[in-house]
Design goal:
Layout lengths: L1 H26 L22 H10 L6 E3 L15 E9 L3 H12 L3 E8 L2 H7 L15 E5 L1 E6 L10 E4 L1 E2 L2 E2 L2 E5 L12 E7 L3 E9 L2 E6 L7 H4 L2 H11 L8 E4 L3 E2 L20 H7 L1 H21 L16 H15 L3 H20 L9 H8 L3 H16 L5 H17 L2
Helix pairs in contact: 1-8, 9-10, 10-13, 12-13
Length: 425
């Protein structure tokens, strides 16, 4: 038992030491890089947009952008004020009220620039209803190009470069396949001033377009990845942004829409079957990326190990409380004796008492019969005088041979038996 307890103690100590060492070594590690496409204006992660936000403030000559954290309804000025609405994100979600507020904002003579991989169907149908331009074509979401690298360029000869600007998708430090999106050339069969392609991706799709709506314009860019921190720390990324911004100018307020940002899959956009890139980020990756959650996770594991160690010990069943043995035979005899006494059957009661006495002598002194021959031995073993024993034997013979017994005789016989019980050893 002692060795078993020592083994358990050592195992628990080793588990605790191992847990502490793991936490110590992990605390010395650098914060993990967040490779998610968040496009957060305050994020310095590879796919955050803190650099973009700073560059935009310089371009529009404003100290700060007006970040929209709530519904667009009531926040966008519908008066012509040369304002600019900006959106950067994987996907955009807006309810009908928000969409109408945005459309009214554009129609009033303002500009909207949206860089997103997934456009809500309502906005797409409203902006790209092109049957008047190209009969037989309709808005049907974006088209895809699957590759790790995409070449971006411009349509206007003053902006186009000789060699496409190469943008590579990096996941955890390594190139990975990515779903680059764009609009098919069929949507631009008629070179209308109100609906123009401005940029091209992989020489097959248009990723930057301008659409007139009311008195304003909508600029749609299908490659928000080009505006992420990872690319804007490079010269080609800054140069690409500079050429995009030549289309935008603002004399009024500049709105940055944070409220409408959602993950790409939340908008219902899904790559074609067989081409979906599974996200390698699991719940544990997020837990280990947050110091507080990391400590909680390892503490939970440590408590689980301790529970298993102590639970593995052999558990003894609860010992039930046992009642002491009861001499039911004696209770039975007492009950029978009381019955005989109440019936004035003195002889039968005396026979019962002498029977109990003989049973006591056999069990206590190992003497089978009470007789003249055994009286000396019984007197020696019990310490009761031999004369008293002979009187008991005389009463026994008289009771056995008679058919009636008085109450006085029963009382005398009872006193003789009680004397034996009280004086025997």
């Amino acid at each position: 038992m002692l060795n078993k307890r020592r083994t358990i103690t050592i195992a628990v100590a080793l588990a605790i030491i191992g847990l502490l060492l793991t936490l110590l070594f992990r605390s010395d590690r650098k914060e993990p890089v967040d490779w998610r496409e968040t496009y957060e204006g305050q994020s310095r992660a590879p796919y955050g947009t803190s650099i973009l936000k700073t560059l935009l403030e310089g371009h529009f000559q404003t100290d700060t952008l007006l970040v929209l954290q709530d519904s667009l309804k009531g926040q966008l000025d519908t008066l012509p004020a040369d304002a600019v609405y900006l959106f950067f994100g994987q996907a955009m979600y807006q309810d009908s009220a928000d969409q109408q507020a945005l459309m009214d904002f554009i129609a009033a003579g303002n500009t909207a620039f949206m860089a997103t991989k997934s456009l809500p169907d309502y906005l797409g149908a409203s902006l790209f209803a092109t049957r008047a331009y190209c009969p037989g074509t309709d808005w049907d979401q974006y088209q895809l190009v699957v590759d790790s690298t995409a070449g971006l360029n411009f349509v206007h000869p003053n902006l186009a470069v000789d060699n496409n600007m190469q943008f590579t998708f990096i996941d955890r430090g390594y190139p990975a396949n990515y779903y680059w999106t764009g609009l098919p050339p069929a949507l631009f069969c008629a070179q209308e001033e109100a609906f123009l392609p401005l940029g091209i991706i992989s020489d097959t799709l248009y990723n930057f377009t301008r659409q007139a709506y009311g008195n304003g314009y909508v600029y749609l860019h299908t490659t928000p990845l080009a505006f992420a921190n990872y690319h804007l720390i490079e010269d080609y990324g800054v140069e690409y942004l500079r050429r995009v911004l030549t289309h935008l100018d603002a004399a009024g307020p500049v709105y940055w829409d944070r409220y409408s940002q959602v993950p790409e899959k939340s908008d219902g956009f899904q790559p074609p079957t067989g081409q979906r890139r599974l996200n390698a980020d699991g719940p544990l990756s997020f837990i280990l990326s947050e110091p507080a959650l990391t400590w909680a996770w390892y503490l939970l594991l440590g408590m689980g190990i301790l529970y298993l160690v102590f639970r593995a010990k052999r558990q003894q069943r609860v010992i039930p409380v046992l009642e002491p043995n009861r001499n039911t035979s004696l209770e039975f005899l007492n009950m029978i004796g009381r019955l005989y006494f109440l019936q004035n059957n003195h002889r039968q009661l005396a026979l019962q008492q002498i029977s109990m006495l003989k049973q006591h002598i056999r069990r206590r002194y190992d003497i089978k019969e009470l007789s003249e021959e055994t009286a000396p031995t019984l007197a020696q073993r019990s310490g009761v005088e031999e004369a008293h024993l002979k009187r008991l034997m005389t009463f026994d013979r008289n009771i056995q041979s008679s058919t009636f017994m008085s109450g006085k005789t029963l009382s005398d016989f009872h006193q003789l038996i009680e004397h034996f019980y009280q004086n025997s050893k």
